[in-house]
Hints:
By secondary structure, this protein is an alpha/beta fold. The chain is 37% helix and 16% strand.
Amino acid sequence: MSLIEKAGLLALHRLDPEKAHDLSIRALAAGLAPLPGAAFTSRHLETEIAGLRLPNPVGLAAGYDKNARIIGPLTRAGFGFVEVGAATPRPQPGNPKPRLFRLTQDRAIINRFGFNNEGAQAICARLAARPPSEVPVGLNIGANKDSTDRAADFAEVARQAAPHADFLTINVSSPNTEKLRDLQGARALAALIQGVISARDETGARPPVLVKIAPDLDPAALTELAAVLRDSGAAGVIATNTTLDRSGLTSAHAQETGGLSGAPLFDRSTRILARLYRLLDGRLPIIGVGGVGSVDQAWAKLQAGASAIQLYSALIYQGLSLADRIARGLDARLRAENTTLADLTGSEADSWAA
């Protein structure tokens, strides 16, 4: 990490977390943050997932650039792919503030934003106007809090976004919209995915549709969900979203309501990832997210069954350059161990799933 980045992080951590988040977005938009430029790539790192060609397997998770305001800078920040959003059909303010908390001792974050965003129309216009890049950019899609037909909301965002996004992610796993996770049930999820795919197909565009799942599923629910995913037409899975579990936390904000992300999520999300990998039996690729903050943790996610990984909370503590550092570290380790991403994926799934 450069001295400039260290100083920037120290300054941001003196501010209220949500104000710091907004300031970081403005700094990137203004070109004030040092960026590596093109994503680091090599023959060891280039990969394809759900039909998307990635220069490297290190992506940015949804939630940082909620309104797609800094797509250009993010595609020059070292990520192999970027996910923006979540977008809902209509703009909504989200939950009351404060709604974002740093758990510095635990290297974690709790948020209860509640899908605050400027609405699909504004976000999709920015997706359409984004600069050309070899880094795929996808949109996380959601439903309005006051919607009477949430499945229709997902379909509507998909209809607007499909011509402009490289992939779409159905977010049924945020804990911050009441009863949203109910859509992970087999019958509701199957209908939801089909509705999104049908809406996408109406546009003539065919970006792959992914599904983001929660880390708090019990074995029976995970088995049921995997069976739906195998036959749904979805092109992949993102495992996992934030957790409601608070085990082992020491920070003062530990009991705030909302979704927990960061280092404490790593083991829980990686176990779910590995179990899902076994249940899917190679039929769908999985993007692993949850607690990744080092090359070793990225490596472990891949071993557990991920074909690619995403970062978010660790960036708050280690800076945006973490993406480039992890990509370069993975490349060095793949070379040193004379292996490939394909051979690494799932190589320790049985151990993690136990």
